[in-house]
Design goal:
- It is a single chain.
- By secondary structure, this protein is α+β, with helices and mostly antiparallel strands.
- The strands form 3 sheets. The protein has a 6-stranded antiparallel beta sheet with strand order 2-9-4-7-10-11.
- Strand 5 and strand 6 form a beta hairpin.
- Helix 3 packs antiparallel against helix 4 and helix 8 packs across helix 9.
- The relative contact order is 0.12.
Length: about 280
Amino acid sequence: MNEMQESVKSGYLLEKFRLFYLKDISSREYVYHYHDFHKLIWFISGNVEYHIEGRAYRLEPHDILLVNKGEIHKPFIDYDSPYERYVFYISSEYLEEHSEGKDRLDLCFQMASKEQGHVIHLSPAISGNLFEAVKQIEKLNYDNAYAKDMYSRVSFIKFLIELNRSCISSPEIFHKMARYDKKIVEMIHYINENLSKDLTIETLSAKFYLSKYHMMRKFKEETGYSMHQYILEKRILAAKGMILTGMPATLASMECGFKDYSTFSRAYKKLLGQLPSDKYGK
């Protein structure tokens, strides 16, 4: 995809997880984008409003922002002050691999969706301890000591366990004071829960009691997407997930609302750069 399109698949993750320290001091324009992996941002400083799936969050220092894979997002930044943060890219397969039974390492990401709040506010004591863990993981990036990669993985898993424990013991840490259009957020939730159903503009307009043109305009304002493109990409990403679990591509296309396979295959190739039948190397 290129930046002339409405959204961009952004970033690539070759490792199981990766930590970046980033500080933007000059103006940079971000586009709406999504990832094939989860993203955790530890916000340090700046004047930033983060938009995720129709919700807008004003970030405060040491907020933790959780973005599930496939979620459309974009930061809006006032460059009067530097935008400073730590960013984790995290493979969903890695979290699955190291989860045990009900003790899932992706719990914080699941709760972010369930609680409808992508931002975590921790108490100063817990935040301080977890931030030290982040700094330790960063330090290991530049360390050549014995078993540094193993130590980094262990440190990261410990970090996630402590974060998940905080989420379980205090669900109120999920900050829900987001700015959003209630109708559009309800519509986004409905679309993502009903990808196999009829999601035409006419059907959604009738269901949510909105005129077609007002609905389409508001949806584009709140998400950066046309409704057609949003539904199409969500269906393709959902189908990709099913195919990766072993489901036949033809069945995955039907499960995700495509009426014929050739239409699905062309759209899949255009968005992801390969055919549904191609084998993924990862």
